[in-house]
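My main concern about presentation is that the manuscript never shows what a single data entry looks like. Each protein is reduced to its one-letter sequence and a matching series of backbone shape codes. For the editor and my fellow referees, an illustration may be useful. For illustration, here is how one protein appears when written out as sequence plus structure tokens:
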Amino acid sequence: MLIFLRAAGHCLAVLLTCATAVAEQASELLPPVVQGSTDVPYPEGAEGDAAVVLELVVEKDGSVSSATVVEGSPPFAERARTAVLAWHFAPAQRDHQPVAARIRARVAFQRELEEPVPPAASAPALAPVAPVEAKPAAPLEPTYEVTVVGARREIGQTTLAKRDVRELPGAFGDAFRAIEALPGVAPLASGVPYFYVRGTPPNNAGYYVDGIRVPLLFHLGLGQSVIHPGLIDHVDFFPSAAPALHGGFAGAVIAGQTREPPTALHGEANLRLVDAGALVEAPFASGRGRALVAGRYGYPGPVLSAFTDDVKIGYWDYQARASWQLGSRDDVSAFAFGSHDYLASGVPSGDPTASKEPVEQLVSDFHRIDLRYDHALTDGRVRFALTGGYDSQGAAPTYMTDRSLGARLELEKQLTRALRLRGGASARLDHYDIEVSEQNPREPAVPQSSDPPPTNISAGLYSDLVWRPTARVELVPGARFDVYASSRRDEPPSTTRVRTIVPAVDPRLSARVTLFSGLAWLSTLGLSHQYPSLRVGNIPAPLVSIAGFPFADRQLQTAEQASQGFELALPANLTLTATGFYSRFSGLTDLSAQCFQFQPGTVGPRLPDEPQPPFVCPNNEPVRGRAYGVELLLRRPFSERLSGLVSYTLSRATRRAHFLTPSGGDDVATVASDFDRTHVLNVMLSYDLGRRWRAGARLLFYTGTPYSQLDGSLPVPPYHAYRTPAFYRIDFRLEKRWQLGQTGSIAFVLEGQNVTLRKESGLGLDCEGHGTPQSETTTCEPSTIGPITIPSVGVEAFF
């Protein structure tokens, strides 16, 4: 048997982003080198010669964590795949630092060989292999072709690898959580897992796990992700103009990718002050099948009680996955996961006999099951998947539910050396409903919305081309064509259904041009559409909405997005990215906006002795505006002893808004967005102290949000001319790790978010009225919340 290795060193270990082509050109890269025996016995009962090509992932310690058959047929493919898992390598290196790598190995079987082949490689790495044959023959000298390439990432994409963000202070080892540290991201409030990204509201962001759409990525309150961190391999973050694969969202796209199923038993567990979790995955049936179970349960009550008595939080999640290899090119899998959250805050007042327990603010549940078939092509792949889902969100007694069914087809094919085709289709059905639970007899009935929940059907086709006309230029033109359809019952007493169908075309274009070694220019352009976001029923949670068209409305949420930037490789393994962006919006539905905007004519003038009517948030007030700014990101990989990042965003987001005047008129003005933050800064440093100790700290700073002074309960000019105070917080992380065996470890982790216990401005105003109803004046100051802090003392174990 002869063995040939073709290494394609796939550099994976960087700080928060995969290495760009620019950085790799300026770095010294060495591929993995096989060590020891590479003998693969000829399968019993087989006949003839055969060759198997496998794709291997070689970890930093030189072990093979996964092996996937690219070419080959049984029984040779399974014999080769099983054997290579025992191989050991001198790991790949970048600038003399070990990194994980993805390589290809070709295993050739020859029936006439009767004795095992001696070790194929020892120092030097590419020494000829002299197989021993049954008949005397001259030694064979196989040739080796070694190609070192960079890991391609989408233009405008930032990738967060789990193994790197595990060290990020305040992220609690969670790649999803680390998004907050990236430029362009502004949270609603510190520790609250809803973000404005380049001016778009949180309800315009798209969340995916393995291509499966989910309503939430984070548990409420403490903000842990709804997927066990050990299952996530990396997270792709597109702040705007995402590739054509992702459609149906007018804002950012956050896509988590799970790790490949292992070829050996693997597990991890953690126990912390606020929650506990575990993950176990293992192969079965001689490696043809693989199974995983994972979950987490939160119990933050005892910790929260030390800081506040009027907040209750509970959460749990689960994941289960099974896959089966049908042949050398075909796999089927089933992936089920779900999440539960409970949040209550505030003590009711007024009725002295009422319970003093915190009031339920939001209960959220979702479940997904995804059935998938994958087929490997020569230089490509095909995937077909079917997904069923159930969502429920709301607060007692009113809950919104969504029963969904979706299908997607993905195709990827290398047409020529310079041209790669990607395309596919998707369809989704969402049936929304309102459920009202039984109420306390002393409580009044909950009024139902006049807008019945809709049933939506959306379908789309997409395609793009990854074209490299020269080694220094990459162009990705693409487009989506989607149809958004919605139907629901007409307003009572009518029993007919109102149906709306709106088509949309979303063109996309991105480019990467290497100007010279160490510097690249990046550009993205895109148009995106999304269903309007409707608030249904008397659900108090501000971000609980459904998708659908208002009556007699055919307007989609629309975002035109563009960015231009540069990536520069600096000395000391530093990488600097500078990006300017501009976005223009129309028809956006911002469910997080404050209740100071009114539809014209909804509230009339009041008489001198008439009390001020209560605030009424507009149900579907469309937002027209724009956002622009500059983002900077300086980073150094965690593979370095001293690592870190600095991210800074200078931005402005504005919108055209309606304001009701005290006389009952309608005033229109261009104002800053409710959550416009001019400056957002993250500074993080981490240092390897030696003896498996590592310490890190992070500073988060952002300026305040705008607000208006009030006349009674109505905002007065100049609108949004005032700002809440700026806020900063400090996060800290200390880790001590011990090695267990060849691949296991155990660690003690002390971590905290907002360890300085800083308070910040809340989402509303504290106002005090003076005088009589006829001549009332109001003084308003920003409310404060917190301190929102998350302490964590725990133990992590890996095997």
